[in-house]
Amino acid sequence: MFYIIMDIQKNWHIIKRHFNKSFRSNFYVSIASVNENNEPDVTPVGSLFLNHDQSGFYFEKYPVTLPKNAETNRNICVLAVNSSLWLWLKSLIRGRFNSYPGVKLYGKLGEKRLAGDREIGKLKRRMKQTKGTKGNKYLWGDMQYVRDIKFTKAEKINLGKMTLNI
After folding, report:
1. Which of 28, 87, 125, 155 has the fewest CB atoms within 10 Å, i.e. the most exposed one?
2. 130 pLDDT tier (thresholds 50, 70, 90)
């Protein structure tokens, strides 16, 4: 498997759609960063949101190593894989994917800041289906801080003939 560079500005709406579908199938994305010893580190994040301008943010309540790594190296890579069983079964039967099974975004982390009403609103809409549960309150009831991300490059997963025409 290897990756093919996408035009991040031209394909941003496709990338956003892919990330939304991936979140629905996985409930998280993987964010890779580099620690102070130049070693890779991957953090699962369930609160990443993409904006309209090749940027995004995530709520920084649970990630520990990601903000620590940002102190010495702000470069990150986000991987979103659509793990929908239906997508994969259809694609395996057809012998091809109709949409990207995975996309990587490269970017730089910004500063941690207080979340605004817009960010809190997006989180509440995403977690709406779990609103009455104890877990919702425990996990997402006190999200106060976000960290912005500016994305500079995008790549789609290439699975040979299965992704040849997308």
Report:
1. 125
2. low
User: How many Cβ atoms are within 10 Å of 141's Cβ, its own excluded?
Assistant: 10
Q: What is the pTM of this model?
A: 0.89
3-state secondary structure of 139: helix
Asked whether residue 166 is assigned to any structural domain, the reply reads no
Provide the residue range defining the domain that includes 11: 2-157
Looking at residue 128, which CATH number applies to its domain? Answer: 2.30.110.10
Cα dist from 155 to 12, 32, 62, 122, whole Å = 11, 15, 27, 26
Cα–Cα dist 150/152, whole Å: 7
Within-domain flag for 164: no
**5: helix, strand or coil:** strand
Position 165 in a domain: no
